[in-house]
Specification:
Layout lengths: L1 H9 L3 E7 L15 H5 L5 E4 L6 H13 L5 E7 H5 L20 H13 L3 E5 L1 H5 L3 H11 L3 E3 L15 E4 L4 H8 L4 E5 L21 E5 L13 E4 L2 H31 L4 H13 L9 H11 L5 E5 L7 H4 L8 E3 L8 H11 L5 E6 H5 L4 H7 L4 E7 L4 H11 L16 H7 L3 E5 L2 H13 L4 E6 L5
Parallel strand pairs: 1-3, 2-3, 4-5, 4-7, 5-6, 7-8, 8-9, 10-11, 10-12, 12-13, 13-15, 14-15
Helix pairs in contact: 5-9, 7-9, 11-18
The chain binds thiamine diphosphate and magnesium ion.
Length: about 475
């Protein structure tokens, strides 16, 4: 159910099936029976139980169509035992892919163009639909046409903007007060395929500055003007919209817009993602000789050792706090991170990512606590001989829970947040599940261990013991 919650949060187009007790037998409430459809319903777009074998083709085709039609999302099919045991010659047929690459109407496009040009200090916020609609280049073109800063939304779980664009400023945080300050200089927020300000912990401060107008584009209509009214909200494909919006802006904005964009980009040069990366690298590098290993330094070594075409799956929690500032997004599939907050996603997700991208090495960066929720995924990776390296950050506990207890309640009595007695032997566990594995405690051994693992085929695990000081 935790995995399904994650799939629901990210709108993963997926069909989930489960076996069910024979129809009628469920009435006796045998073991392994539950009202599966009702259990799945809050988390899926459609949940159904097959009651006649001949309905199966229609159900499967409809399930695939529903899952893949934006707003995409998971679908659930319950398969009773009598259906599974039944036999008939059935033809599943082909499911339909609904083409939703829709552009806004001419009038809507015109209104959006004029509204954006009226703004003097726009800011762009990007989200997951940039990835889903393959709009990375188009989003960068919009930012550069306007010369305006661009942030990833506050739940940046994918590669939703090209980090090395001169307009990229990084991701918004999930601290309401901080976000409000970041957004306060602007006079228009342009939201591209995102729930822009999805927060975590409650705050009395609203992250949206008073009166900041919003224009928003995307196919996930639930997210359009969900928490804040938008002046313009367009249910349209992000890529298709940008393909017509950028030329429309250029035509209507002319030389004045070009000049303003140049100035804007020049002003961002000293504070954009690229400019901030260099001093951050320098600062983190200073921790290179620390023992136990510094978790930020581990993240830096990981980023630097990863091959250019590698994909990062990130559930590093406190150890990956700097990852987004260190590793550039260069393609839409290069980065996947925990979205919903429900941990235990990372290891099995990395198996899925690897299966979907067989030609790219995959690195799964996981907290030790998170990894234990679904550690059996290691065996699956070994079984499929995937080019997948698990880097497990062993800090001996739930560091983030400790940090929050201290920050929010001033309490450093960390009950039930350590797993050091006995310690978990991740290296031994990985070996028992069929993976090549090693344990690193010496910072001097880290770089070569990572590079060597990333460049060889097969599933591997590197356990890195790091400083877990709160
Ligand atoms: C399914 C689920 N259970 C519990 C939690 C609460 N929780 C959030 S983070 C965390 C600990 C993560 O520990 P670890 O992966 O070791 O990362 P660290 O904080 O040490 O960096 C827990 C228990 C959650 N978010 N999801
Ligand atoms: Mg931990």
């Amino acid at each position: 159910m935790g995995s399904l919650f994650n799939a629901s949060f990210t709108g993963t187009p997926m069909i989930l099936t489960a076996g069910q007790q024979e129809q009628g037998h469920g009435l006796m409430e045998p073991v392994l029976y539950g009202p599966l459809v009702q259990m799945a319903e809050p988390l899926v777009k459609w949940a159904v139980e097959v009651t006649r074998l001949e309905d199966l083709p229609r159900i499967v085709r409809r399930a695939a169509k529903i899952a893949t039609t934006p707003p995409t999302g998971p679908v659930f099919i319950s398969l009773p035992g009598d259906i599974l045991n039944a036999e008939a010659g059935i033809e599943l047929g082909r499911s339909t892919r609904v083409d939703t690459r829709v552009k806004p109407s001419d009038e809507a496009l015109q209104a959006l163009t004029q509204r954006i040009l009226k703004a003097e200090r726009p800011v762009i916020i990007t989200g997951d639909e940039i990835v889903k609609s393959d709009a990375l280049k188009e989003a960068a073109a919009l930012a550069e046409t306007l010369g305006c800063p661009t942030y990833q939304s506050s739940t940046p779980y994918g590669a939703s903007f090209l980090s090395e664009s001169p307009c990229f400023m990084g991701a918004l945080s999930r601290l309401q007060k901080q976000v409000r300050e970041v957004l306060s200089p602007y006079d228009l927020m342009i939201v591209l395929g995102a729930d822009p300000l999805r927060m975590s912990v409650y705050s009395e401060v609203d992250p949206l500055p008073e009166g900041l107008p919003i224009v928003q584009v995307g196919l996930v209509d639930w997210d359009l003007a969900k928490n804040y009214g938008a002046e313009i909200a367009l249910k349209a494909d992000v890529k298709e919209t940008l393909r017509v919006l950028v030329p429309a802006l250029k035509a209507a904005g002319g030389a004045a817009l070009e000049g303003r964009a140049k100035q804007g980009i020049a002003a961002l040069k000293s504070k954009n993602w690229t400019a901030r990366r260099a001093p951050l690298v320098e600062q983190i590098s200073k921790a290179g000789d620390r023992s136990p290993i510094d978790p930020d330094w581990l993240a830096l070594q990981l980023v630097e050792a990863m091959p250019a075409n590698a994909i990062l799956v990130d559930e590093g929690l406190t150890s990956s706090r700097q990852i987004l500032a260190l590793r550039p997004h260069r393609d839409r599939y290069g980065y996947h991170a925990l979205a919903s907050g429900g941990i235990g996603w990372g290891l099995p997700a990395s198996v899925g990512v690897s299966l979907a991208n067989p030609d790219r090495p995959v690195v799964c960066f996981s907290g030790d606590g998170s990894s234990m929720y679904s550690i059996q995924a290691l065996w699956t990776a070994a079984n499929h001989r995937l080019p997948l390296t698990f880097v497990i950050v062993n800090n001996g506990g739930y560091r983030i829970i400790k940090q929050r207890l201290l920050a929010f309640h001033g309490d450093d009595n960390y009950i039930g947040m350590d797993f050091i007695d006995p310690p978990v032997d991740f290296t031994g566990m990985a070996k028992s599940l069929g993976l090549e594995s090693m344990r690193i405690t010496d910072p001097k051994e880290l770089k070569s261990a990572l590079s060597s693992a990333f460049s060889r085929p097969g599933a591997k695990l590197i356990e890195v013991v790091v400083n877990g000081t709160v």
